[in-house]
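Weekly modeling sync, notes
Attendees: AB, CL, MP (scribe)

Item 1: holo prediction request
CL wants a bound-state model with zinc ion before deciding which constructs to order. AB pointed out that an apo prediction alone won't tell us much about the pocket. Agreed to run with the ligand included and paste results into these notes for async review.

Input as submitted:
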Amino acid sequence: MDHELRILIDLQALDTRIAGLERQLEAIPARIQTVRDTTLEARREVERLRAQLDEIKKETRAKEKELDYQASQRAKCEARLYEVKTNKEYSAVLAEIETLKVEKARIEEEILSLMEAQERITREIAEAEARLHAREQAGGVEETRAQGELREAEAALAQVRGERESLSRDVPRDVLATYRRLLRGRGGLAVVPVQGGICAGCHVALTPQHFQEVRLNQTVLACESCGRILYWVA
Ligand SMILES: [Zn+2]
């Protein structure tokens, strides 16, 4: 095989590898971000439930105060029973006490359901905390793995770029310029094999004459349709 053609084929292999590594590197930060976002979501859920619990505790305290106030009102009413002069006044105070009793029962009912809500949310917090803990651990492992892949891909990229650099020195400047122009303009594919008489880059059939020339692998020949550099693999 022609020496120059051999180098171009190798260059293409390196550039394909470089493009793959670059794609891999580009995807990693988003992956790390997703891991962090998922953990953050789990943490926010714990925070949301804790705030909800605080709110319910506050509401419970307010109801308890209301109950205390109620008790003092009732004590006052009961004391007044001994002071009233007429039956009519007596009945009025009794009616007031009755109203206070009904209200007391209502407040106690409300406090009870608030206590139940507290218990339920406390359980939910424990579950959410367990989920957060598991998420933090899994996230830590995933992130470490992603960071490792990042470093590996960066090291591999540096190495392959170095190889490309030294290989490029063996190609005449004008051939290299053509190669690079094709690489940019043809979706990262400048050197392609001919398979079954067809250019693997644009899938157009070569003329028999052209095909015979390419089969020799003795010169750098371009596809008449897409301009890519062609070679033949038996
Ligand atoms: Zn072609």
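Recorded for review: Residues 25 and 154 are 7 Å apart (CA to CA).
Action items: CL to compare against the apo run; MP to circulate these notes.
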